[in-house]
Amino acid sequence: MIKETLKEAEVRMKGAIQALEEDLAGIRTGRASPALVERLQVEYYGSPTPLMQVASISIPEPRQILIRPFETNMIKPIERAILASDLGLTPNNDGKAIRLNLPPLNEQRRRDLAKVVHNRAEEAHVAVRNVRRDLIKDLREFEHEKMISEDDLKNGEEELQKLTDRFVEQVNVVKERKQKEIMEV
């Protein structure tokens, strides 16, 4: 019973780390990356669709992203999605493709991005702690219903806390790595 609960906690906490890493991949450093735009929501026949499903995304140069829509009528909606996003980039379109030129980051923009990374990491910490809270509640219900003993409850809570500490540390490692990457000139 406790083993399954700890297994569930680990899976959910890994999910929080994975979500954080995917989220941070979209925060740009000095170089171009498809992850910057591939999750951008584009209006596709009335429904929001990730950009990577309506166009191919490539990096022809270190500071440029090339977006080739599968259908030419998608150029305008893709441009609108880019302009509406918080990327701060201006799309250049030649009728067949869209080019995004990434300007070098200045010191103030780097600091702002580092703050964004910090906030996203805080959200991941909260997600990990919420998993712990939910599963401690489950463990206490098991004990209340006499499915586990009081000692089992205590041991389960201790194991859950160790797991939580491990994943909070992983969030910190991911945050530090991304902040270092952003501040690198």
UniProtKB/TrEMBL annotation:
One of its GO terms (biological process) is translational termination. CDD domains: RRF (cd00520). It comes from the Bacteria. Its main location: cytoplasm. GO terms for cellular component: cytoplasm. The keyword Translocase does not apply. Residues 139-166 form a coiled coil. The keyword Signal does not apply. It is found in: Cytoplasm. Keywords: Coiled coil, Cytoplasm, Protein biosynthesis. One of its GO terms (molecular function) is ribosomal large subunit binding. Gene3D superfamilies: 3.30.1360.40, Ribosome-recycling factor. Pfam families: RRF. Residues 20-183 form the Ribosome recycling factor domain. Belongs to the RRF family. Responsible for the release of ribosomes from messenger RNA at the termination of protein biosynthesis. May increase the efficiency of translation by recycling ribosomes from one round of translation to another. This is Ribosome-recycling factor. It comes from Levilinea saccharolytica.
